Structure formats: C-alpha cells, structure tokens
C-alpha cells in the first residue's frame, strides 16, 4: 500500500490554497498538528504562505509546509477573477508536485486532506494512487458565501463555478464538515451529493495547553476590568452583527451598567474597506444613536490609557497574547454572529472560564450549553441579551459565576481539544483506507 509505515502510521498530504491567518487555516494547522502528534507524517502543500502572515506552526518548523506553484498564476487579475485564479493555482500546484517534481511519488501518501477548494479533486483522483483516498473538508458551501453579498450579474458569473463545486466534491472519498449546522446546510444545498456521500462532522479544536499568561496577573495589568468587562471578539465585518452587543449594552440602565465597559476587539485591516467603514458605523451607532462614550485604540498601550468614563472601547487588531489576557479578564463574552458555521471564540472563552452569551442558531448551539456554560438568545430580541448582561454584572454571585466557568473548561477539554480532533480524523482515515483496500482487492479479483 502507498506510503505504508511501521505500526500503521500514515503519510498524510494536506492541500490548502493559501496558508494565511483565518478560521480555515487555523483548522488545517490544528488538524495537521493533531495527526502529527499521533505519530503520522504530515506534509502541507500550499500555493502561498507568507511567514509574516501565518500561524506559528506553519513557520517555526513544527509542520512541514511546502509552497509550490506560486509563480505562474496570480491570486487575482486587477482585483477580479479570484475564483478563476484560485482554481488555476490549485491545478498548477497539483501538476507541480505530481509531474514537475517527484515529491508526490516519493512521499507515497496514504491519505489526502483537501479543504476549501474542491475544483482540483478530479485531477487529484487521476494523479493519486487508487489506494490513496481523498478526504475533503467543507467549511461551508462557497456558492452561499458568494451569493450572500453579490449582485445578479455576479451570481450569473458564478453559476459554472457553483456547478463545478458540487460536481468536483463528488470525487472525494469522504466529505466532512465543521458542525451539524453546516451539515444541514450542505444537505439542503446539494441533496443529490449528500445522498451519495455520508457527511461526517469533525469539530475544529483549540489548544488546551495552559497559556503563558495564565498566571501573569491579567486583572492587574488591565486596570479597567475590575468594574466588569463585557467582551466582544470578532472581525469588523457586518455579518458579525457587532452592533447587537452595543445596543444590548446601551439598553442597561445607568445603575445596571455602573462602571462596566464593553470592549469590542477583533480583526481589523486598514486595507480592507469593510473593516474601516464598519468600524466607523459602529462608532456612530454608539455615540450618535445610543449616547455612549467611546474610544478607539490600536495598541495595548493606548487601550490602557483611555479615560475611565469611556463605556465602549474599540480595540483594533488583537495579538494572541493580548487576546488571551482579555479573555481571562472578561466577566462575559458576547458572541453576536447569526448562523455562524462553528465559532472558535466561544470555545476560547469557555477554556478560560468565561461564560458565553451567543446567538441561538448556528454552531454555538453545539458548543454553548444553556444555563451551564453560558446562554443562547435570539439575536432579534435585544432585550434578552441585555437581561443576560445585567444578570452577569449584578445578579450572579462570584461562586456561581466561577462554577459556570469551570463547566466551560470541562466542556472544552472533554469535547473540543486537539486530541479529540486527531482521534476523529484518524478513525475516519482508517475507514477510508479499509474501503480503498477492499475496493482494490475486488478490482484485482475481477
């Protein structure tokens, strides 16, 4: 069998379009690390990986990351045709490692892990050995992501690519998704495909090892957290509905709010027009419509020096160490996106003992347990969110709050740790290899 190692260890080849920083990339890196820790050999091929803009494991030697096929086709042409370029770059990557070099044949992979872009699966099926099955991880149907923000002419332009997405996914030996919610969406989007393929759910994981800041006295470093910090962490994008957190916080009476502060932190790139305009819209909402005092900080130094009477603080772009510090300092995490595919931030908060208030739809319904690790509320009923904020700030005793925090830690460690993800993937790969082996034996017998 291709790539057979001693004691059943596997050689697993990952194929990912652009190994930058994002939810999909975090999942790929975590999956690769979890499998590597189980003794398997893991190699990641990608069309692009900037050492200045990628996760630590992709640049510090933890993972074997190989950038191939990055010279012929650009990511876009004058900012357009990105989907065409992405497909061509993936095909170029496959041809490079299969024909322009001997890497694929020398690796002799047992399993391929492909995610995000399925267009190259038919070609991979031709190039890969019949005994090397293909696992495809569908984060979310790309056609829905494109249609959600496109005009009719762009949807028309996308039609052939949408058809290609469904057709090409059929070449995967196994398809997995990131939540039961996403499985339902995929089943409704492609009923014919899901009749042929049994969709598996493989939850993303988070690193459960103690962080360096775990005992660094975060509450002493952040002086304005003593009065109660309500935290929102998300990219500055309209679909994240950060305004919901601001409106719910503003609905607290002055007595309920006291000296508490809402801190809105998250991904912000000044080159991304939506980040800039949405931040401006949120500031206008808080100051103009709701009468709250706001400030915006771009560094931790400026954040620590904002006036005490600021009620809503916007913190643009949060480094990992500061993010961990904020989570440990918060009294409540407010997670506002609706129909989120999964949602890593609630897990990060629960791991640090912080209760979570999230929308009662999408991925958080599979991670947050109502009344045990947090609350799930209808995003259309702002008053229900305000009630939870009031409960956390004024009605819950410290013992009760800490017990909820401990329950969150237990839930993450028992269900969403790296080891669970590795075991889940390994079991699926074993099943795929067994089916491939039986199929090969049958074909030989014929």
UniProtKB/TrEMBL annotation:
- The protein's Enzyme Commission number: 2.4.1.132, 2.4.1.257
- Where in the numbering of this chain does the Glycosyltransferase subfamily 4-like N-terminal domain appear? 21-209
| MF GO annotations | GDP-Man:Man(1)GlcNAc(2)-PP-Dol alpha-1,3-mannosyltransferase activity; GDP-Man:Man(2)GlcNAc(2)-PP-Dol alpha-1,6-mannosyltransferase activity
Localization annotation? Endoplasmic reticulum membrane
Q: Which GO terms describe its cellular component?
A: endoplasmic reticulum membrane
Which reactions fall under this protein's catalytic activity?
Answer: an alpha-D-Man-(1->3)-beta-D-Man-(1->4)-beta-D-GlcNAc-(1->4)-alpha-D-GlcNAc-diphospho-di-trans,poly-cis-dolichol + GDP-alpha-D-mannose = an alpha-D-Man-(1->3)-[alpha-D-Man-(1->6)]-beta-D-Man-(1->4)-beta-D-GlcNAc-(1->4)-alpha-D-GlcNAc-diphospho-di-trans,poly-cis-dolichol + GDP + H(+); a beta-D-Man-(1->4)-beta-D-GlcNAc-(1->4)-alpha-D-GlcNAc-diphospho-di-trans,poly-cis-dolichol + GDP-alpha-D-mannose = an alpha-D-Man-(1->3)-beta-D-Man-(1->4)-beta-D-GlcNAc-(1->4)-alpha-D-GlcNAc-diphospho-di-trans,poly-cis-dolichol + GDP + H(+)
Q: Does the keyword Cytoplasm apply?
A: no
The pathway this protein participates in, as annotated, is: Protein modification; protein glycosylation
Q: Which residues form the Glycosyl transferase family domain?
A: 229-396
Q: Which domain of life is it from?
A: Eukaryota
Keyword annotations from UniProtKB, A to Z:
Endoplasmic reticulum, Glycosyltransferase, Membrane, Transferase, Transmembrane, Transmembrane helix
Q: What is its main location?
A: endoplasmic reticulum
Which Gene3D superfamilies does the UniProt entry name for this protein?
A: Glycogen Phosphorylase B
Return any one Pfam family short name. Answer: Glyco_transf_4
What role is this protein assigned? Mannosylates Man(2)GlcNAc(2)-dolichol diphosphate and Man(1)GlcNAc(2)-dolichol diphosphate to form Man(3)GlcNAc(2)-dolichol diphosphate.
Q: What family does the Swiss-Prot or TrEMBL record give for this protein?
A: Belongs to the glycosyltransferase group 1 family.
Q: What is this protein called?
A: Alpha-1,3/1,6-mannosyltransferase ALG2
Q: Which organism is it from?
A: Bombardia bombarda
């Amino acid at each position: 069998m291709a790539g057979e190692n001693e004691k059943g260890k596997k050689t697993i080849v990952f194929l990912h379009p652009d190994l930058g920083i994002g939810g999909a990339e975090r999942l790929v890196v975590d999956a690769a690390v979890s499998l590597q820790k189980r003794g398997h050999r893991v190699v990641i091929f990608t069309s692009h990986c900037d050492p200045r803009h990628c996760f630590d494991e992709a640049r510090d030697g933890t993972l074997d990351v190989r950038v191939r096929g990055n010279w012929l086709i650009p990511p876009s042409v004058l900012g357009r045709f990105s989907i065409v370029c992405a497909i061509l770059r993936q095909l170029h990557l496959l041809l490079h490692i299969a024909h322009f070099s001997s890497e694929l044949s020398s690796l002799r992979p047992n399993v391929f892990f492909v995610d995000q872009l399925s267009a190259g699966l038919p070609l991979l099926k031709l190039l890969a050995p019949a005994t090397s099955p293909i696992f495809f991880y569908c984060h979310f149907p790309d056609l829905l992501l494109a249609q959600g923000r496109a005009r009719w002419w762009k949807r028309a332009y996308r039609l052939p690519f949408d058809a290609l997405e469904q057709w090409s996914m059929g070449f995967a030996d196994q398809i997995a998704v990131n939540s039961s919610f996403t499985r339902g969406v995929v089943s409704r989007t492609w009923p014919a495909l899901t009749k042929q393929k049994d969709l598996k759910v493989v939850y993303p994981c988070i690193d459960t090892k103690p962080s360096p800041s775990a005992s660094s006295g975060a509450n002493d470093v952040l002086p304005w957290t003593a009065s109660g910090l309500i935290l929102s962490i998300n990219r500055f994008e309209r679909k994240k509905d950060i305004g919901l957190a601001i409106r719910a916080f503003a609905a607290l009476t002055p007595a309920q709010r006291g000296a508490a502060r809402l801190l809105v932190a998250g991904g912000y790139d000044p080159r991304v027009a939506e980040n800039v305009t949405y931040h401006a819209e949120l500031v206008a909402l808080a100051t103009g419509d709701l009468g709250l005092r706001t400030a915006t900080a771009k560094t931790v130094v400026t954040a620590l020096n904002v006036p005490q009477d600021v009620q809503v603080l916007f913190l643009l772009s949060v480094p990992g160490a500061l993010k961990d510090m904020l989570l440990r300092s918060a009294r409540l995490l407010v997670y506002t996106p609706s129909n989120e595919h999964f949602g890593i931030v609630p897990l990060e908060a629960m791991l640090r003992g912080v209760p979570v208030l999230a929308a009662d739809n999408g991925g958080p319904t599979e991670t947050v347990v109502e009344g045990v690790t947090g609350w799930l509320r209808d995003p259309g009923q702002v008053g229900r969110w305000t009630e939870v904020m009031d409960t956390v700030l004024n009605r819950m005793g410290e013992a009760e709050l800490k017990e909820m925090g401990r329950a969150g830690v237990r839930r993450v460690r028992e269900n969403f740790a790296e080891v669970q993800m590795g075991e889940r993937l390994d079991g699926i790969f074993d099943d795929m290899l067994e089916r491939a082996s039986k199929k090969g034996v049958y074909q030989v017998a014929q």
